[in-house]
Here is the input.
Amino acid sequence: QSADSVVTLLDYGAGNVRSVRNAIRSLGYNIKDVQKPEDILNADRLIFPGVGAFAAAMDVLNQNGMAEALCTYIENDRPFLGICLGLQLLFESSEEKGLVKGLGLIPGVVGRFDSSNGVRVPHIGWNALQITKDSGILEDVGGQHVYFVHSYRAIPSNANQEWISSTCNYGDNFIASVQRGNVHAVQFHPEKSGDVGLSVLARFLQSKSYTAKKATKGKASKLAKRVIACLDVRANDNGDLVVTKGDQYDVREHTKENEVRNLGKPVELARQYYKDGADEVSFLNITGFRDFPLGDLPMLEVLRYTSENVFVPLTVGGGIRDFTDGNGRHYSSLEVASEYFRSGADKVSIGSDAVYAAEAYIRTGVKTGNSSLEQISRVYGNQAVVVSIDPRRVYVRNPGDVEFKTVRVANPGPAGEEYAWYQCTVNGGREGRPIGAYELAKAVEELGAGEILLNCIDCDGQGKGFDIDLIELVSNAVTIPVIASSGAGVVEHFSEVFRKTNASAALAAGIFHRKEVPIHSVKEHLLKESIEVRV
Ligand code: 1PR
Here is the structure.
């Protein structure tokens, strides 16, 4: 190995840095892991992908002597790239858990985004950067969308001005990247920002042989609306994992054999959607409530292979819950989720188990801290936890007929009912529960969900458009991002949902699998309608 092909990685073990590893390897570099502080001091180039919480990260770095080594390395102007928390830790302190001291290399306090500024927190998704100086690694990135996922940010001030190389706008102007000499750090995730992100990493890695060109400034943007491709995955009757797709959650062909509809192979389709411009890919293991995920090796394999060359966020759902196996061994939902994260997932999505947790919370008013939702978001952060809701529309004559929040529906029910509530279900729509989508959304936000994936059983696979009544109801109930799902049939359905509701993203499955509507046509249409998207 030539020294030029090796990059040192500081992974202090607090979370998943698999995607960063995959991105570095895809660019032809080998990774040397930091084991002790001297490895930092001896590095030729160091990448620090901070993950987890600020305070926990500082504790680890202080305890094992890495904090001091990092400060020395950076003060000596050695090639450094911090990512996300790896940027925040360079500042004096963070308000993440009280006021916690950081490495203190850059003046300023890292604070939380303020949802009273009309933005949803966490900040999840694609924003364009405004370049403020030539930093050498961002030359073609000005005005391009890159992927962010965070609730805390540093803001520009006179004291830190000289460090700032780009900013971004989300409720307020925040620091998207910093640079001084050979020291760089970015708040966004280059490893999850498609080709644009890979080009940033490549320029950092080649810095010795690279002559920087003048950067394009670019205009800062609002948050782009995301277009997500969803792969419902399950084992077919031969035991192979296939991508399937239901009509109102029925995934079997209406033939004599009644086989599971097979629309392709998960890894291949995910790669295709990445190339086609999907902003995210979601895998839902739709029989996860039956199978034990840790024994469900094919799904872990799917994630491992996919994350090797799909550089946008990956979500996996299905079967995330506590479990006792046939041998009496108990696994916590946290262990199940950790296995998914280690295999390449950026977010996990919880369905049935979140319904039970919300019901208990509403009944008792007590947050036990023990639900899968609470445990996973405590350890991995709420931006890593999506709650997937599978509601079914129930028409009523009067809002007072039920204890759940109703909406006046655009199209009256079969007996002329003008109102409906949306009943949550578990086990893939098989069992209705005594809780509405509105009540569930509010409860899971309080319990630590970072995002809501809002399906609708009535609309699933129908191609008649998203359920605007439902999406409006839920997206107005919470301050976390809501992904509209179920029912997309034509490009106009995407502009409709973004115009009429506060959804942050729209997800579709059938139209992409059947190649009826390519992802780029959706994006072109949205652009034509003046809705910001990543191209
Ligand atoms: O309860 O935590 O084990 O999670 C199970 C997960 O599997 C949930 O996220 C649940 O939504 C999903 N699921 C379970 N059964 C089905 C099924 O279809 N029989 N799929 C299912 C849900 C719905 C959407 C679909 C959109 C878009 N799939 O994700 O992709 O409706 O489809 P369209 O664009 O074709 O209309 P747990």
Observations:
- The first strand starts at residue 6 and ends at 9.
- The chain has a mean pLDDT of 93.
